[in-house]
Amino acid sequence: MTCRIVILGLGLSLLACRMDNPAFDLDSGAELSDETRGTDSTVSPGDGDGDGDGDGEPSESSESPSETTDTDGDCEPGSSCDPCQICDETGECVIDVGGVCDGPALHCADYLYGASETTCYRLVDVTLAGRCSEQGLCESSLPSECPLEKGAVHFACDGACVTNIDSCAPLAKASEVEMSAMCLVEGEQGPGCTSKCANGIESVIENHGCVLGECQPLGAVSFCEGYVCDEQRVSCLESCETDSHCSQNFICAEGQCLPG
User: 15, 19, 63, 168: which has the fewest C-beta neighbours closer than 10 Å?
Assistant: First the structure.
């Protein structure tokens, strides 16, 4: 038995770790079968139950690292997450910059298109939904996102009463631009809206002023006293060459209109 132990060499360690097995009980006198000896004699360092420290091949029961990577995120790509968020291709929720959200609507007609000649227009009547900001907040759209198309008339005035056409600025808030910012509206004289001479049975100079953006007569200022209006219809003639320069019932004599 001693000789058998020496020959087996590494088999001694096998006998030591398998003492509980009756097949290896030293007191039983059982001899190792040729099949057992053949198997044990080919064990190399590191073989056995997988606990060896040698350089042998790993056992078939060893688990190799998984070759697949888990790419599942928190959401389904393309679906919505929280408000103003969307699921990207990696399955992560990110801010949906510029996305439509349930925020304050913007009415484009509340803003100005601009002036055309003597008329101030609003933008076309279109409503824009709320938009997601870069910070992920649901905010109102900007007036600059409205279609730059002419809408309804905000106000109109006579060309003679226009004093500041630039006040009807594009994208300005309509409620903040009143007619008086662009036109004279309080009965004052404006460019081209001054005193005017009107011919009749008795020619008269009428004082004109702007009323609600239109140049209107405000009442007689003075009579021409026998003369008619000049060609510009601004004032009365002060002398005559012919009777046509005089009012009805007056004649031209020595350069003056006299009762005829």
Answer: 63
